From TrEMBL:
Keywords: Membrane, Transmembrane, Transmembrane helix. The chain crosses the membrane at residues 64-84, 91-107, 119-140, 161-180. The keyword Transmembrane applies. Residues 237-396 form the Oxidoreductase molybdopterin-binding domain. This is Sulfite oxidase. Gene3D superfamilies: 2.60.40.650, Oxidoreductase, molybdopterin-binding domain. It holds the Pfam family Oxidored_molyb. InterPro entries: Ig_E-set, Mopterin_OxRdtase_euk, OxRdtase_Mopterin-bd_dom, OxRdtase_Mopterin-bd_sf. It comes from the Bacteria.
């Protein structure tokens, strides 16, 4: 009985701590709230293999799962401390303060931390929890006794315990709800700042897509991915909120003879380019969904670099790596040579005719056709530094992913779906293939390891986009395995050598098993 009451007071104390920390984080920084900070630190410390596994199994829910994990660990310790508190009040208080220190260290150690001030939510939360636990434990200990009696304390104490615990729980709910609401208002402000943005017409509009790039077949991914359907991969537990009015981008470093600092309007005053580009995440499994195509609007990064006096390494420039930094502390390293080789590497401000959505990097992100996102597509960008690959390892490179990672030529079967049951007769097999900045030349399909059949290709879009394909399969009853492979314009054909995403992208043929009746 006592253990249960102790556990309950531990949980309520922990709850009070988180609620108070959330409210205090409104004044400090929403990202400094302990669960977010500890979760963020956990993401940074997670070995690449585990992160890869989490993305694979939880997809975009990986963040929610992580936060639930942090909360469960916290709840477990709160229970233990709560049970111990009536006997060891000082020890339990020290334990709670220890938790505060963990939160504080996590918050101040985040790459986007603004200093010791980020420790305040965790410290205040821990102090509140210590107080709550101390008082509740006192009520569980009958007067004059230093250890809990066999039966719960006197009727008076029991009533004060119930009133106390209910009061703390109610107050914490109010405080926590207020904190969450005020923090959510911050998102609204960023959204409002986004709503004020009017994107100018592009100086160089996207080339008209040829008729027939989009076969519009049922079950096939559309050629252009809608913003709401576009995959999202990042380490941000709370979406960074950036105010366009005060946003600045600094361009500096090795071989930069004229460092630049640009505001958002400075970017909009420059000639804007609009281009269809297919993005891919290195964590995409064969057949996975972390790939999408949008019509991006932005400034050509190479033009900015040239204006700053940067020369490509092949022209004697001293820097071979461009390191982009985001407001949330992500670092992404890209070869300067690739950015300046004539492709449409962009500092993007628009996505499918809108300002960038907050989740996709508002107000400005980078984009380099042909390179995986983690080596090219910095969202919420605020700084570009020219350096060398020898001198600096970016975030994922420190975690064992390759420093350079061009996107591998891949193909995917979108329809039929895995384990679908189909009727015998003609079946449309269709999907997409991508070989950004090379182009897709051929796609082939085979059934049950038989001969390869050449698929029909949709009209060819710009060289940095994927290509749809389809093949009519005379399906006969039975269980069948469909496989696909693509050949790009360099003449390379995908091989069946299966590799995992780490260190530089998955490879192998996508296969789908279906049953025909
Ligand atoms: N600031 C920031 N930028 C980032 C990331 C990140 O975690 N933080 N993830 C990168 C990765 S791994 C990919 S694949 C792309 C994904 O962009 P999207 O979420 O707009 O699809 O963003 C890149 N840019
Ligand atoms: Mo990625």
């Amino acid at each position: 009985m006592h253990a249960a009451l102790g556990a309950l007071s531990g949980l309520v104390a922990g709850y009070a701590a988180l609620a108070m920390a959330e409210l205090v984080s409104v004044a400090v920084r929403p990202e400094a709230s302990p669960v977010t900070a500890v979760g963020g630190a956990a993401i940074d410390q997670t070995p690449a293999g585990v992160k890869d596994w989490a993305i694979r199994n939880f997809g975009t829910n990986d963040k929610l799962i992580l936060q639930l994990g942090v909360l469960s660990v916290l709840a477990l310790f709160a229970i233990v401390l709560g049970v111990l508190a009536p006997r060891f009040r000082k020890g339990a208080s020290a334990g709670v303060l220890g938790f505060g220190i963990v939160g504080a260290l996590a918050a101040t150690g985040r790459p986007d931390s603004t200093g010791v001030i980020d420790a305040i939510p965790s410290v205040v939360g821990a102090l509140v929890a210590t107080m709550v636990l101390y008082v509740l434990a006192g009520l569980l200990t009958a007067p004059g006794q230093s250890v809990p009696p066999r039966s719960p304390g006197s009727a008076v104490d029991r009533r004060s315990f119930v009133v106390g615990i209910a009061g703390v729980a109610a107050a914490s709910t109010g405080i926590g709800a207020l904190g969450l609401r005020l923090n959510a208002a911050g998102v609204k402000e960023a959204a409002a700042s986004r709503a004020t943005v009017k994107l100018p017409a592009p100086a160089s509009p996207a080339p008209q897509l040829p008729r027939g790039v989009d076969l519009k077949l049922p079950g096939l991914s559309p050629f252009t991915t809608a913003n709401r359907d576009f995959y999202r991969v990042d380490t941000a537990l709370t979406v960074p909120r950036v105010d366009v009015g005060s946003w600045k981008l600094r361009l500096h470093g090795k071989g930069v003879s004229r460092p630049l600092t640009l505001g958002f309007q400075d970017l909009l005053r420059r000639p804007l380019f609009e281009r269809h580009i297919t993005m891919t995440c290195v964590s995409n499994e064969v057949g996975g969904s972390y790939v999408g195509t949008a019509r991006w609007l932005g400034v050509r990064l190479a033009d900015l670099l040239r204006e700053a006096g940067v020369r490509a390494p092949s022209r004697g420039g001293p820097a071979d790596q461009l390191v982009a930094r985001s407001v949330d502390g992500m670092t992404i390293g890209t070869p300067v040579e690739t950015v300046m080789d004539g492709r449409d590497a962009l500092l993007a401000v628009g996505m499918n005719g809108e300002p960038l959505p907050l989740e996709h990097g508002f107000p400005v992100r980078m984009l380099v056709p042909g390179l995986y996102g983690y080596v090219s597509a910095c969202k919420w960008i605020q700084d570009i530094e020219l350096t060398t690959f020898d001198a600096y390892d970016a975030y994922w490179v420190k975690r064992d992913w390759a420093a350079k990672a061009p996107i591998k030529t891949e193909s995917r079967i979108d329809t039929p779906k895995p384990f679908a049951t189909l009727k015998a007769g003609p079946v449309v097999v269709a999907g997409v293939a991508w070989a950004q900045h090379k182009g897709v030349d051929r796609v082939e399909v085979r059934v049950d390891g038989g001969d390869w059949h050449q698929a029909e290709l949709a009209a060819e879009g710009p060289v940095d986009t994927w290509r749809q394909w389809w093949w009519q399969w005379p399906a006969k009853p039975g269980t069948h395995t469909l496989e696909v492979r693509a050949t790009d314009r360099t003449g390379y054909t995908q091989t069946d050598a299966r590799t995992r995403p780490i260190p530089n992208g998955a490879s192998g043929w996508h296969s789908v098993v279906v049953t025909v009746t």
